[in-house]
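User: Hey, quick favor. My workstation is busy. Could you predict this chain's structure for me?
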Amino acid sequence: MTDHDVAQDPDERRLSTREAADRLGVKPETVYAYVSRGQLTSRREPGGRGSTFDAREVDALARRGGRREPSGAGSELAVRTGITLIDRDHCYFRGVDTSELAAHHSYEEVAEWLWTGEMRRGIRFTAPHDALTAARRAVDALPAHTGPMDRLQVAVIAAAAADPLRFDLSERAVLDTARTLIPTLVAALPRRAAGRSLAQGGAEEVGAGWAGDERAASGRAAGGLGAAEQAAPGQGAAGQGAPGQAAAELGTGGRGAAEPGAAEKPAPELGTEDGPLAPRLWSRLTSEPADPPSLRVLDAALVLLIDHDLAASTLAVRVAASARAHPYAIVSAGFGALDGALHGAASGLAHRMLLEVLDRGSAAAVVADHLRAGRRVPGLGHPLYPGEDPRARALFALLEDVPRARPALQAARDVITTTARHKEWHANVDLALAVLTVAAGMPAEAGETIFAVARTAGWIAHALEEYDEPPLRMRPSGQYSGPRPPQPLP
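Assistant: No problem, here it is.
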C-alpha cells in the first residue's frame, strides 16, 4: 500500500464525539467514560472545538462489545462472544446445534472442542493427586449437612491452594487447569448413601444428606486414587446391573459403538477416575445403579448445560477474567452467582414439584397451589425461547428410553398440559433435569450440581476468550443517584 493509499483510507479519519458515540451506540458522555478508563484515546485538533477519536480504535471497541443504550431503558452491557448463539428456539455452540453435539459426543469431548476447536474422540479428564487430596480434605471437614454447592465452592478453593502455577494465564496452562479441575470437583463430592427411590416404590425424596462418603481410609493412606475411588460394597461393576456396558458406550463418545479401527479397552468400573465423567458424577448424585440410557441422559445434560450465552454466572466469570483472575478464581465467581435462588437452584424447585405431583396423584392441584400463592410454575417458560427450550426437548427424547423415568415424565407432561389450558408455557431445561433427578432417586440439589459441573467448562471457554481482550474492560459506569455534594460531615 502506498502513502497515498493510506492517506485516502476512510478509517484513518478522525471522528467527532457524536460520531464515535453513534458508532458505539452510546451517549456522548459514555465516550468520555471510555477515555477515562483507558479504552479510548482522544485528541484535540489545533483550532478544533472538541476531541476527536481514531475511527479504527472506536470500531475495535465496538467489536469487543461497546455498551448499547436503548432509549429510556438505562444501559445494557453487550459483549462479543464466539461461543454460544441462541436463535429461533435453537442453541448453538460455535455454530453447531447443541442437541446434535449432545447426541453424538460426550461432555469431555465437547468441552475440549469448545476450548481448542479440536474434537478429540474418547478424551478423559483426570484429577491430579495433590489437588484431589486437598479438595477432599477440605470437603470432609465441612458439617455433615453441607449441601453440594458449598462443597464445590470449598473444593475449588482447596484445589487452587494446591496449585502453585495457578497464576499462569497462558492458554496451555489454563487448558491444563480446566482438564484437571472439573474431575477434581466431581471426585471431591462424597458418594451418595443408600436410600429409598422412586424406582423402589416411593415418591418421597431419597437420602438424608450428602454424608454417604464411601472412600476408604486405607486408600488415602496409600496415596493412590485407584484405591480411594473403589465403589462401595455392592456398588461396583458386579452390583450395578450393567455399568460396565454403560461406561463402554460413553467411552466412545457417549453414543453407540466405537469408531472403526478403535482399539477395544476394558470398560472402567462405575465411578473410577479413569472412565467417563458422567458415571463418576452419577455415583455422587445417587446410590441407585446406573444403566446405559440413564447415563446417556446425564451425559447429554452435561453437554447441553455447558453454556447459555451471558447468564448471570457467566457474566461474573467474564468480569473476573477481565481483572485477570486465575481459572480457579473465575470458577469461584461463577459458583457464587450460580448459588442464587434465581439461577442454579431453579431445577430443585421443579424436582420438588414433581415429587408433590407424584405424591398427590394430580398435577392440577399442585399447579393451582403455586398459582394461588402467586408463584410461577417451576420448570416452565424461558425468556430466551418463545417455544420449548431445545435443551428440554433433547433430554425429554432421551428420557423416553429410561423405563424408571416414566412416572416422573408423565408427571411433567401433566404439569405442562394443565398449565396449557390457560397459558402457553413451554417446558424448560429445569423440568427435564427434574425428571432425571426424581427418576434416579437423586436429591433436589442434584440438578444444581449437574448444572454447576457442566457450566464449569463454559466458564473456562469464556475466560479464555476474555483473557484475549484488553484487561479491565468490563467496567460499566455507575449512575450516581445519591445526595448532591457537598453534604455536611455526618
